[in-house]
Amino acid sequence: MVSEIHCDSLWYGADIVTMRDGKYHLIQQGAMAVTEGKIVWIGPYRELPAINATREVVYQGGLITPGFIDCHTHLVFGGDRSAEFEQRLNGVSYAEIAAKGGGIVSTVNATRSTSEQLLLEQALFRLKPLLAEGVTCIEIKSGYGLDLESEMKMLRVARKLGELLPVTVKTTCLAAHALPPEFAGRPDDYIDFVCHTIIPQVAAEGLADAIDAFCEHLAFSPAQVERVFLAAQQVGLPVKLHAEQLSSLHGSTLAAHYHALSADHLEYATEADVEAMGEAGTVAVMLPGAYYLLRETQCPPIELFRQYKVPMALASDANPGTSPALSLRLMLNMACTLFRMTPEEALAGVTCHAARALGLHETQGTLETGKLANWVHWPLSRPAELAYWLGGQLPASVVFQGETRP
Ligand SMILES: [Zn+2]
Questions:
Q1: Can you say which residues are annotated as belonging to the binding site for Zn(2+)?
Q2: Which tens digit of pLDDT belongs to each residue from 94-114?
Q3: What residue numbers does the annotated binding site for 4-imidazolone-5-propanoate cover?
Q4: Which of 10, 11, 236, 264 is the most exposed place for a label (fewest CB within 10 A)?
């Protein structure tokens, strides 16, 4: 008796980069069988067992990678800061721009005064190019509302994006992003408000999958961040942290202590920080877009991440101030060029390790039996090309949960 596998669909005709354990693990002339949106068999086509598929899709060559995961974005916001960008390049100083209500405050004001519907339309405009180049899962943070209603509005918009388009959206409450103007000079009072009002309310309404904060001299201290982490623990949500972007406060060690899913930026992380992250299994999220736009020169400690086996993820950090990035593939090139990550590490950063940074590594990020059938078919012959080409649109076709995305 030959046992036959029954499946919804069978896909073959291309090479498959599985990214299992963060490595290419290339299968030449691969095949995948899919049932109910999940991979039930994957391997070389010549080893395909007896199979009965309702539908067959044959690719004419090319390369398949796992769907891209953008694990750190601020995609929902009102207004944009292109006018400031231009002013600065015309010689207007940061101080002058800030004195006129520019910087993050301008985004907070614009986000508060923009309707939910308009925020949604503007975010859709930014999300579509990311999807076109293979994103199947994206994290979106709040953090430009900084009051209860506006933070919830941002998170509802993020959730709605995932209902409108074939993409998984994970939401993160970043109420502890900056000090709102009405709390000027009273950061501890604002942190009280975040811990006692915003986080419990956002959790009660199921609007956030994680809690994040910005640990920096111009934002919140480690002691304030720790109170945010305790509030997150109370409502049973995992934490993430913007840490060591501009200076060393050992926020990443604190994040590791609270078993954070990730610590992000990390240009100024020390060996002790990296060691703590390695022990806790906290992912290091690299954000070369912000590094580039700020003309930062301190590189994140890539060699230490390798040494302490800290998984490195890579994200767009799409935001109106420091990284107006609408291409995750461009970040692959920047991670290699600016940070000297290898093309394989960069690809793992937007697949396998990005999934871990969102707590989704059991279900996505690699192409393996039991994982979601989320992948991108590229007209390329080598995976390094994904990090090699600078810009340009690759006509990729994307499969989301077993169906080719329109
Ligand atoms: Zn960020």
A1: 72, 74, 242, 317
A2: 778 878 888 889 999 999 999
A3: 81, 144, 177, 245, 322
A4: 236
